[in-house]
Write a structure and sequence with these properties.
Helix content: 25-40%
Strand order of the largest sheet: 1-8-9-10-11-14-15-16-17-18-19
Order of helices and strands: EEEEEEHHHEEEEEEEHEHEHEHHEHEHE
Largest sheet: 11 strands, mixed
Structural class: alpha/beta
Strand content: 15-25%
Oligomer: single chain
Length: 411
Amino acid sequence: MGFLGVFGGMTGFRRGRALCVAPELNTELTVGSLPTDENGRVLLKNLSRTKLDEFVASLGEKPFRAAQLWRWMYHPDSLVGTFEEMTDLSKALRAKLEDHARVDSLTLNDTHVARDGTRKITYKLEDGGIIESVWIPADDRVTLCISSQLGCALNCQFCFTAKMGLRRHLSLGEIVDQVVLSKRFFDDKHENGRRITNIVFMGMGEPLHNTENVIQATNILTSNKGLGLSHNKVTVSTSGLVPEIVRFFKESPANLAVSLNATTDEIRDWIMPINKKYDLATLLGTLKTVVPRREDGKALKKIFFEYVLLKGVNDTMDDAKRIVQLTSGIPCKVNLISFNPHSGTEFEPSQPETMKRFGRYLALKGVRVTTRTSRGEDEMAACGQLGKPGDKPSPPRTKIPPTFEGKVKGG
């Protein structure tokens, strides 16, 4: 079922030089290269705390006003969308902010509720693009899966989002607002009510291709002065961008999940072309040098390996044996994921018994392993199903290795 968002339209944003007139000061304010909408209003959630301080100072206001704004935007009990709701600000300041700034970077577009209670939430971007987040309820938590890009450049062959290609990176505000707006509209505010507890960057896009904004977003999500989520409850997924992984471990407090999905370079080159740049030896060798992470406030004892099982491609017992070898020496947990089909794919999900046998073998060899249940697939909200390719040509398919010709559709 659908739910049309009626929370107001927003116009395109740009990055440029905004010239604003502060009513009280009657002087021209220069906000330099701060990101603005087409009306010259600064998009506040695109600002770091330091930049917000600078913007508030440019309005002729005292520094504590920046702390008030930050709290209204990000404190879990606030998360307001308008300046009028910021009741401890004077009317004059609220009017000034209304002229020069804007709170939200996204507009709620629609929600679709799957039979299992999963919600696919679509948000409208300033330039008309649509991104998707997924609200996933469980007995003891609610996980929100968020996007980091409109589309994706990495062309993983089993992923529906890849068929879009990369349209653009999401801004800091567009990433964080998926969490803020989803909590605002869908958290149950009653005592013991169901609320978002976990965030995973596993929606549209490759998060570490948009490194700067994703790292800033994880810091806002986990900051005591931000949304205050535990760093253990925020996980960023990557297909294996090695230099960005190294940077992530230095600058972000969040967990890391690595999409492994193959145990040989032949298969990974085919289904995840990024492997041609950073092969398995390079990727896993790097992980051995950065895990565990012990820095104060950013401790990370293990990483997650995501492994989508594709029938006849990467689901043999030889693959299971190689996972044991490849992950040796890396503190980790392996998440086995059933492939979620979509139109035009040449792949099929592994049989349930194959997945069970695969998982049992890993567990017997001492590997921490779980099998992730598909959620929301009837609304195309499951892992690997997000996005809409539209009319633009999709990136070319990679060549099927001779070993697998005839074993997949079109092979």
